[in-house]
Amino acid sequence: MEKYHQASATLLLQCFPTVLFCFLAAGIAKADAATKLFVFGDSYADTGNWGRSASSWKEPYGITFPGKPAGRFSDGRIFTDYMASFLGIESPIPYTTAMATAQDSRSRHLQYGMNFAYGGTGVFDTFIPAPNMSVQINLFEKTIEEQKVYTKQDLLNSSFALLSIAGNDYLTYANKKGNPQELPGLTQRIIAQLSENLNLIHGLGVSKVAITTLPPIGCLPVVAAANSYRDCNETWNSAAKYHNQQLHQAVESLNNRTSRSNVFGILDTFSALMAEFKKSNGSGSGDNPLKPCCIGVSSDHSCGDVDEKGGNGGAKKYVVCNNPSLSMFWDMLHPAQNGWQAVYQTLKPSLHEMMI
Ligand SMILES: *[C@@H]1O[C@H](CO)[C@@H](O)[C@H](O)[C@H]1NC(C)=O
Ligand SMILES: *[C@@H]1O[C@H](CO)[C@@H](O)[C@H](O)[C@H]1NC(C)=O
Ligand SMILES: *[C@@H]1O[C@H](CO)[C@@H](O)[C@H](O)[C@H]1NC(C)=O
Ligand SMILES: *[C@@H]1O[C@H](CO)[C@@H](O)[C@H](O)[C@H]1NC(C)=O
Ligand SMILES: *[C@@H]1O[C@H](CO)[C@@H](O)[C@H](O)[C@H]1NC(C)=O
């Protein structure tokens, strides 16, 4: 991976006198050698699979990047984008965009892999009607075995999968007023299914497969709002800790059973976010790290809501902070670009370690 970075940098430097020719040459080199990134999971990784009715396609989502709503559940870049930049490639095309793109112009986009993640989904079905992770993996399998978009050989050389599970399975459980005593059982079912998913993806030829830990769900603004965003809820955070502990064991056991070393890896977003909260908490700036940038004007409104009766595009039912680049969270559930960038910086050493 690192070699690939250096090669393309050298190519660009040598290319100055004959820019046009070199762009062509670089394009061809890339098509052969580009690492491919395949992404599965939820809104923490989705870069535009939802249709235009989703909040991710409404103002003010996307104001930082790309400058308008474009399907990300944030003001700007999310972890998928940082992961792609780590691999030296463009952010992979969302599956639904790829399917809607004409065949002849598709291949340029497909060379960097594909993003199958849908906001609101989980390992199991959630309260949001969208493809669960198993269905997403099925779609990926079809691109190899039926549509022949990718060959196993392509993948075995240089490919990376990112799985994001940020907690929709748990949110669904909470919405159904599930009994807290039964939570460990749910976690065990989730982890067993995740193990199977990780194995399936590697079995399809992907050489490195990384999964994020559950974030500190007790610190999400939607939970922390109950105490004015001052503090995390420890009940929820310990559920996340238990999940992550089980996940570590499952991934270790998968690696033990795989002949090649270091195939499966964990990206510890839980610890990265906690470290960031600690850093900005009481830093004197007066900024509370758990308070999101974009907030509904009342508890029945969320970021992006407009009053349809207001006419003329509707009156905004939300307020946006002055400087999103100071916020950890964008809305009640999702990190801001600033938060994702901080997480990425913290996780970079783990990513380098995975590449060995
Ligand atoms: C995922 O969704 C499919 C289609 O709705 C369903 O058949 C399958 O049981 C679900 N998988 C899991 C693990 O819940
Ligand atoms: C895969 O890697 C091998 C050796 O590392 C190389 O010879 C081959 O050309 C590569 N194939 C593709 C499709 O990139
Ligand atoms: C944390 O969340 C649980 C479950 O929703 C709730 O019962 C508890 O009161 C919350 N704790 C605090 C300190 O708000
Ligand atoms: C993995 O293998 C190591 C070394 O053989 C062993 O100590 C460890 O208990 C194994 N872990 C699991 C979860 O199987
Ligand atoms: C912020 O600091 C206060 C006081 O030390 C502490 O009670 C609280 O748990 C901290 N919040 C976070 C999110 O770390």
Automatic annotation (TrEMBL):
Source taxon at top rank: Eukaryota
Entry keyword set: Hydrolase, Lipid degradation, Lipid metabolism
SUPFAM superfamilies for the chain: SGNH hydrolase
Name of one Pfam family that matches: Lipase_GDSL
Biological process, per Gene Ontology: lipid catabolic process
Molecular function terms from GO: hydrolase activity, acting on ester bonds
Family: Belongs to the 'GDSL' lipolytic enzyme family.
Name of this protein: GDSL esterase/lipase
Species: Linum trigynum
